[in-house]
Amino acid sequence: MNRSLLSVLVASLFAMPALAFEPFAVKDIRVEGIQRTEAGTVFSYLPVKVGDTLTPEKSAQSIKALFATGFFRDVRIEVDKDVMVVVVQERPAIARIDFTGMKEFEKDTILKALKDTGIADGRIFDRALLDKAEQELKRQYLARGRYAANVTTTVTPLERNRVGISFNIEEGAAAKIRQISIIGNKSFSEKNLLGLFELTTPGWLTWYTKNDQYSRQKLAADIEKLRSFYMNQGYLEFNIESTQVSISPDKQDVFITINVSEGEPYQVSSVKLAGEFALPEDELKKLVKIKAGDIFSRERLNETTKAIGDRLGNEGYAFANVNAAPELDKTKRQVAFTIFIDPGKRVYVRRVNVTGNTKTRDEVVRREVRQMEGGWYDAARVTTSKERVDRLGYFTEVAVETPAVQGTADQVDVNLNVTEKPTGNLMLGVGTSSTDRVILSASISQNNFMGSGNNVGIQVNSAKSQRTYALSYTNPYFTIDGVSQGFDVYHRTVDTSSTELAYYKSSSTGAGIRFGFPISEKESLGIGLGVDSTDISVFDTSPNYYKRYVQSFGNRNLSLPVSLNWSSDGRDSFFFPTKGSYQKAGIEVALPGGDLQYYRATYQLQHYVPLNQKFTLMLNGELGYANNYGSTNDLPFFKNFYAGGVNSVRGYKASSLGPYEINGGDEERLGGNRRVVANAELMWALPGMEKSFRVGMFFDAGQVYGKGEKLDLGDLRYSTGISAAWISPIGPLKFSYGVPLNKEDGDKTESFQFQLGTTF
Prior knowledge:
Mean pLDDT: 85
Structural class: alpha+beta
Radius of gyration: 37 Å
Low-confidence stretches: 1-19, 425-441
Number of helices: 13
CATH superfamily of the largest domain: membrane protein fhac: a member of the omp85/tpsb transporter family
Largest sheet: 16 strands, antiparallel, barrel
CATH topology of the largest domain: Porin
Shape: extended
């Protein structure tokens, strides 16, 4: 059939509904058959207007135009004298969409997905689109491991040319992985290799992780983990021969078989550098992580090429190319590597562009940037800039790009794109802890006040043991060099009647000013000066130690505390770190001129060791020492240290460790001037909740020593147990179940301890 004949047939097909007529001037256009569509909508699509001459050709064009809208299943053109009559039959509209038997997915999620395919309330019904949506829904069930799922659709005609669509779903049970087999392994046991996999057979936690349900993406990731493991053990010729996934006839069980070829382990015979050295060769050789005589490791080889590339990037070679070429000696099972280095041109940064900051001022972002405009490109400074902007906490996402400037060979731009997030917090809530039964708390804070980067906060805490009302202000860039300045005003009351401490009450009102000085990117030094007025109340049931202090120094004390603090934070996350260290040291001294003269020093060291991708070991140590100076003074008892509880030595009641005095048959805890605490905790996050929920197994040790007591580490108390921390929608939650290991007479224990909400 030739093209001209085909064209005639198509034209005649569209012309069939049109009547044979002589051309005439259209005096009016009438639309018949519409129920939902406005007549004006039809007129807008017609190529013919009143006053035009209607010909058979224009009639055919009108029919084609109206069909193309998708609104109509039939269109005819008729002539009534000088009137053009458009007769249409509308396609039905979708009035409602229902689901029966769907439990695996949220209805709103599926409705949104259907809308993207053209199926939604008010849309024109199209059977082809409905079939496509049905197949997509089936595919989603297959992706969830529900291979027996059956989806059928029912279309019900309704009044006013509408239809209702019902998806009838039989989900069936999710198929479980019953067996994963690795065939061909000789050097490593199947059990150890399967330990690398995320996919697994049903276990005690798989109801939550869903890792016992087959996923093509997860299997691909597990195979890559297997390949990396062998490559890191020297098996350079390791290969996945085949992967078979089969399902049982009842579609309930999945079987996975992976056939591997291990080959033989290779030893590195030599590593050479070649190409153009933009830096001294000796300096580059120090970056080589893999040496002659080592068993081949792909991980260490990648670390080498990355380290060299990063080092060149720090010198302005933004587009350096570093590749390792292997030479295999299959007879000796050895491999020699030549690392080719092409630094490319040294480039400098033309501009630093900040985008996406709709509220935060440009200067707030730019003052965190360490890569300067007009300077040589430095990859380390670009990375540091991104981290510093991210740590501000003002943005949900910080992305950095370094595109080359078009038309040049030695310039790049640094583009910082940020996504704003709300930085103001209004919290009104109820907290609780194992120390205070109910804590009514409220806080209003703005971490990025009017986009300036300044922090303004008001805090209220109504815990019975410690009530706090505080106002704070901080300007992190009081000077252009990053010196911070802030002040605090507070009123705090203490009532120990509901705690393990000896009974007393105090009321403190004070204010202070503070400055912070950056020492390096991770270290800072803080200095503060304040004034504090404290009223002390003791009672008949209070310890004699407290009574003697009040008799000697009165129940009202004015102090002028000055503080010096140093901190170093190298953790990779503020809330749930997995690596890095954190150190903090500080000393508070009450200056002469006040009623009190004392000093109080503390030191803390935390270290996080990543054991693997899942587990992190946290080591924590804390020391505290306090004393008075001057012959007419004594250390205020309300400045003593305490230990025990969910934040120090778990399994023992809060603040219960250390010296005590028996009063009326009760053991009243006095605290001490020295404190030792150590913690070791193995932590891991729950899958899918890595940023909000973490569990752990801990070992704690600690003790408090009174003034004049010998510091004997043999008096340390030990405990072990399990813990969990959750950043919940209603506030941070921390709980533990601890078992004391060397409880002695007089010790007060508490196995389950928790804290909900934030206390100030």
